[in-house]
Structure formats: C-alpha cells, structure tokens
UniProtKB/TrEMBL annotation:
Catalytic activity reported: 3 S-adenosyl-L-methionine = nicotianamine + 3 S-methyl-5'-thioadenosine + 3 H(+)
Name of protein: Nicotianamine synthase
GO MF annotation list: nicotianamine synthase activity
SUPFAM superfamilies assigned: S-adenosyl-L-methionine-dependent methyltransferases
PANTHER family from the UniProt entry: NICOTIANAMINE SYNTHASE 3
Catalytic class of the enzyme: transferase
Organism: Trapa natans (Water chestnut)
Keywords (A to Z) from UniProt: S-adenosyl-L-methionine, Transferase
GO biological process, alphabetically ordered: nicotianamine biosynthetic process
C-alpha cells in the first residue's frame, strides 16, 4: 500500500499541512505560492494509484480536493469581478492568468466531442455545463471559438456565481443570446436534461465518490438516449487535485474514450454516451481503432446517433458552481495580492 514513504506523497502531505493552516484561501501571495507548489508537484507523471493509498493519505487527498475547490472558486470570483468592471468583459478574458489553458482544454474537448459525432453531423444545438462557476470559460470559449450556433445552458448551485457570470455575457450581442444560466442543484433538474445533445460535468461537482456516483446516475436517468456526456477527471498524482472518474463508474452510459493530458492542462476528459437500449444490439459488434491525440486516449467505440434538440427555453438568472475546470488556475499574480 503506497503511503508516506513515497517522496511525492510526503511532499503533498507537507503541503496539505501548510495549506490547511492558512487563514484564507482568497488570492494572495502566500496562497499563490503554496497552491502553485502543490500543482507543480502533481503535474509530472507518477504511477500512483490513489485507490491504494493508506487511509491517512486518503483523508489528506479528500481534504486537499475540497481546499483546492474552495481556492479555485475564490480565484474565479476575483477575476470575474475584475472583468465585470470593463464595458465589454469578454474582450479582456486574457487577463485571467490561465486563460490559455482554457483555450487548450476547450479545443481538446471539442476535438474529442467531434470524434464521437456521426460523420457530417451538424454541431450540437444545445449543450449543458454542470458546475460552471462565476467565470464559465469553457462555455465562453467553446461558444466563441468552436460552436458559433450552439446554445449553452450553464447550471450552478451558487446564485452569486451565476450573477457574476451573467454580467460577463450580457454586454456581448452574440453570446448574450446563446449563453444562459440556471441556479439550483442539478439533482433537481430532470426532464430538462433530456433536451441537451451534450452535457459537461465539471470536475468538482461531486467531490467524493458517492456524491459523484449519485450525480452521474441522475444524469443517466434523465439525459436523452444517444446524448454525449463529457466528464472531467484526473490521472496519477493529479488525483490529489480532482476526483477520479473511471469507466466502470459510468452506469447507464456507454464508455467511449478517456484522454489523459501530459502537459499543464490538469484534467483528464472522459467521454461517454447515454445508452439507447434499442440500438444496443446493432452497436455491440462495432469496433473502432483507438484514437491518439496529444496525450493518451483509451478505447474509442461507436459515435452517437444524430439526435438534435432545437427547442429553446427562456433563460433563468442562476449561478453555477464555483467548481471550474483546472487546478492550475489556483495561481495568481503577486500584483493581485
């Protein structure tokens, strides 16, 4: 059983002690330094199996994920407030220290999504993002750079986060017509989930295994057959920053592929399809070659059917979770301290 004798585990446990003793996780020089050390420690490839950790280190990992989630939400809120001071906030997204990482992650997820759509299929008409937070950069980048005709519905449990996010979008004549915000617990959203072609699940929505499993079971119950689920996960030592989602966790879904980045983009991306029992027999014998991107991808299966949902609903002014996407966002310039 891997435990504190591993130099990396020892370093992470030492950083946890320092981070957990901070008076605040709001962006400042001390928070920046410690969280940057943590992220840099977790980025290099390391053959750690977090499921094999001793109970003490498992507890440290669970608490670290929560602390990182809190710090990430505070960082996003800080920059969302700053961006909101501009007349056209979306023209200034690059002031966020890790905006380029969002550009990379959004391009990666768009490419993965495209691989699993039928040949010559039209782009998804409606996409939901669960846990978008006060700075919903994934939705904004995908909407602006990759899916110019798609409607994005962002769900978050935090009304204040949604209000900040909405303020960024309203001055933009295009995105204000296509990017919507809904406040509430995703477990209370039922039939509306069946209207989306694609659902993104942010990494920090469901920080413990049981909670994540309940959320994915809920999505499996109410998403439309053939709809795509994009789940943020983590691999190796990066699992000290984010929860891990395994293919076996995808009950009610057909696992399609998983991508493990090897660069500064922290999150792995798991792609699955809501099962359509009527088509199971037809797809059971299908086999495709494993896709290879810029990291490691495992097992690609059949693409989704060509279902499209075009009906729109009036947006609800709601916030999403301060659970954003990538742990490297936890760093901030000393100027902002």
């Amino acid at each position: 059983m891997v435990c504190q004798e591993d130099p990396l585990i020892k370093t992470i446990c030492q950083l946890y002690v320092k981070i957990s003793s901070l008076e605040t996780l709001s962006p400042c020089k001390e928070v920046n330094a410690l969280l940057t050390q943590l992220v840099h420690a977790c980025i290099p490839p390391h053959p750690v199996d977090v499921s094999a950790l001793c109970s003490k280190v498992q507890d440290v990992r669970a608490k670290l994920i929560r602390l990182c989630g809190q710090a990430e939400g505070l960082l996003e809120a800080h920059y969302s407030t700053l961006l909101g001071s501009f007349d056209r906030p979306l023209d200034h997204l690059s002031i966020f220290p890790y905006y380029t990482n969002y550009i990379k992650l959004a391009k990666l997820e768009f490419d993965l999504l495209t691989q699993h759509l039928p040949p010559h299929a039209t782009p998804p008409a409606r996409i939901a993002f669960v846990g978008s937070g006060p700075l919903p950069l994934t939705s904004l980048v995908l909407a602006a750079n990759h899916l110019p005709a798609t409607a994005f519905h962002n769900y978050d449990i935090d009304a204040a986060a949604n209000s900040m996010a909405l303020g960024l979008v309203l001055p933009d004549p295009d995105l204000s017509r296509r990017v919507f915000f809904h406040t509430g617990d995703i477990m209370d959203v039922t039939t509306e989930l069946g209207r989306y072609d694609v659902v993104f699940l942010a990494a920090l929505v469901g920080m413990v295994e049981e909670e994540k499993a309940r959320i994915m079971d809920h999505l499996a119950e109410f998403m439309a057959p053939g709809a795509i689920l994009m789940v943020r996960s983590a691999n190796g030592a990066r699992a000290f920053l984010y929860p891990v989602v395994e293919p076996d966790d995808l009950r009610g879904f057909e696992f399609l592929s998983v991508y493990h980045p090897t660069d500064e983009v922290i999150n792995s991306v798991v792609v699955a399809k809501k099962k359509n029992h009527e088509l199971d027999t037809l797809s059971a014998t299908a086999a495709n070659a494993d896709p290879v991107l810029n990291g490691s991808v495992v097992k690609k299966q059949q693409p989704i059917s060509g279902r499209k949902c075009c009906e729109m609903v009036q947006p609800l002014l709601d916030p999403l979770n301060p659970y954003g996407n990538i742990a490297e966002e936890l760093a901030i310039d000393d100027k902002s301290s």
